[in-house]
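Incident review: delayed structure delivery

Summary: a single-chain prediction request sat in the queue longer than the usual turnaround. Root cause was a stuck worker, restarted by the on-call engineer. No data loss occurred. The affected request and its eventual output are reproduced below so the record is complete for anyone auditing the incident later.

Affected input:
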Amino acid sequence: MRETDADWVAIGRRQPYWGVVSVDRFKGKSLKHRDAAIFFESGHAYVRNVLDITRALLDPKFEINRALDFGCGVGRLAIAIAKAAKGEVVGVDVSPDMLRLCAEHAKDAGVANLTLVESDDELSAVKGTFNFINTYIVLQHIPPQRGIALIQKLLSKAENNGVVALQLTYAKARKFLVHEEGRSAYFRRDGASIVELSPRPDLRPEGSITMYDYDLNQVMAVIQEATKYPMAVKPTDDDGHIGVQIVLKVVR
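Output delivered after worker restart:
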């Protein structure tokens, strides 16, 4: 199984912003003022959207108290969550360079309620429970053998009546396969194993971005162990990576 944490340490060192949003204007180790404004405003738009979904469909009076952003990167979403939260927000990432930049951006934004910790598969540095847990465009870069267990751990850290927003991919559009053929790695989950469909290790040096599709049956089974409450499911399509964003209320 590929060591994707090492990839993201390398990406965080070389392309910390493009690694979060893969648009050419975000390439490089720093951003121009206008590009930075666009980058971080997209985080505020995301948080507004998740809160709108939550209040419209799950809990009309929901407010963020203590929150966790898994895979916070340079703070695009974590800073927006912190500005919307009444209490502490914990940002978690495997990249020390991204965490350093996140701390700098939080300071520049006047955010004082954001705590940053390095991540591992046990979430060992994450203490306590949260009434809002978020992970967006993160699980898709983690092999499902690890990612399913991480989803279980994230759900276990949600307070009763807390909200969890998670996104993952489960398929590729035909347009993606045609566009990327010959220079990408493709994987599918087959039972308990991950099968690589196009073995080309020469195409994937350390620091490459790899994408993994999840078995939605397995994901839903894990979610239903945590809650039977209705949830909101929103389709996502990022350049042919077909996925879902699931916003759910944990009711135990």
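Verification: The radius of gyration is 17 Å.
Action items: add queue-age alerting; document worker restart procedure.
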